[in-house]
Amino acid sequence: MNKYEATGTAKKGLFRIIFSRTGIILLLVLAQFGMMVSSVYYLREYLPYIYGAMIILEAVVGIYIINTKGNPAFKMTWILCVLVFPLIGVLFYVFVQMQVGTRFMQNRLSTLRLETAPYMQQDQEIVDCLRASKSANAQLSYYLSRQLGFPTYRNTEIYYYPLGEYKFKAMLNELQKARKYIFMEYFIVEMGYMWGSILDILKRKAGQGVEVRFMYDGMCSISMLPYNYPRQLEKWGIQCKISNPIVPFLSTTQNNRDHRKICVIDGKVAFTGGVNLGDEYINQKERFGHWKDTAVMLKGDGVQSLTMLFLQMWNIGERRPEKYMRYLTPKRSELHRGMGYVIPYGDSPFDNENVGEEVYFHILNHAKKYVHIMTPYLILDNEMITTLTRVAKSGIEAVIIMPHIPDKWYAFAVAKTYYKELIESGVQIYEYTPGFVHAKVFVSDDDTATVGTINLDYRSLYLHYECGVFIYNNPEVDKIEADFQKTLAKCHKVTLVEVKERSMLTKVTGHVLRLVAPLM
Question: What mean pLDDT do residues 280-296 have?
Answer without folding.
Answer: 96
